[in-house]
Structure prediction request, 389 residues.
Amino acid sequence: MRTQVAIVGAGPAGLLLGALLHKHGIANVIVEQRSADYVLGRVRAGVLEQVTVDLLDEAGAGARLHAEGLVDDGFVLAFGGQVHRINLFERTGKRVVVYGQTEVTRDLMTARAEAGLQTVYAADDVAVHGFDGDRPFVTWRQGGAEKRLDCDWIAGCDGFHGVCRASVPAGAIRTFEKVYPFGWLGILADVKPISHEIVYANHERGFALASLRSPTRSRYYVQCPLSDKPEDWSDEAFWAEFRVRLPAPLAEKLVTGPSFEKSVAPLRSFVAEPMRFGRLFLAGDAAHIVPPTGAKGLNLAAGDVGLLSRALAEHYLEKRDAALDDYSRRALARVWKAERFSWWFTSMMHRFPDNGEFGARMQLAELDYLMSSSAAQTAVAENYVGLPL
Ligand code: APR
Ligand code: PHB
Prediction:
């Protein structure tokens, strides 16, 4: 088998890259280790920046998100028992769209199937070869048979635990990492959301986040110890803890009910440099992780593949490689800005076991300062709605 771009991983990064390349007439095949159902079963964040919406439109996968996505002009910050608001639209002219990553993935899968593009699911032992030379290729096993895909370029869109970054020689890559001393316990429940705007709450018992997937489906989180398992938390225990962490005006609006999904996620900041190794490019979680406070993960992945698809289009259609040569630098410049914002927002909103009472008061003082400074609110709003490509 031969293609122009071999994409490893059919998460949002790989699927969106495949769709954008196809629009430029560039052939691509995706090789994914899991089944399509497994990929669709992963529940993740749900806030899309304008740049991400534009890229999904460009990819021809934006129709349902425009019909069903919930447009927000701002978000809510709760601390010290009070409710505050950051007005995104007034400060930046931009809004965000609340639309689950699972739905983004589903829309991209549907568009890919309709375009008749090839995706290999359930590929075992995927490996990438020859990217330091002129003839890269990808191999895997399926049903006992050895498979090989020759290509011009490999796009490593295989997430944090993928094979692409791990295949780069240690001396050629540098990584930067911070692991946070807590996790997020998240639930999905078919109950009316407390707010159509996302609520980030700083509370002495820990952070809480109220998000949503539709006018009748809520996505709520509480900060929890890393050692907690979803089974440790009954629905009753979750609702009680979540309610305590909300200021009264929001707690009064809380509707509870049975959850149908419950999971604990660790929080991590991670960057790999560079994002190109010869004929291998990294994009999305394969190259960087942000803690979910600020909802940058999916948007950064979309930004990466937006840049990469344009650079590959220049290569094939205009025979110019300047953008390919500049991909890593440009992507990393956006990545580090989002890393800073996600780290800052995480640091401001969570209980850190080692920071004590002084640390907690410093958070409140900084949040007070934020709400007293128009310039600071504008800076936060600009970071939240995201950077241009
Ligand atoms: N071979 C083939 N596929 C692989 C391999 C491998 N060795 N390892 C992992 N994969 C697949 C995974 O099964 C997954 O479907 O690569 C895909 C990577 O998808 P994601 O982890 O969703 O990463 P990405 O597409 O970069 O999406 C970024 O997803 O996790 C969120 O916070 C993240 O929101 C951000 C977005
Ligand atoms: C979510 O809807 O799951 C969500 C929203 C905002 C975040 C993180 C997650 O910052």
User: Anything to note?
Assistant: Residues 45-47, 198, 209, 211, 219, 292-295 surround P-hydroxybenzoic acid (ligand 2) (CB under 6 Å). The CA atoms of residues 72 and 168 lie 41 Å apart. The chain is about 40% helix and 30% strand. The first helix runs from residue 12 to 23.
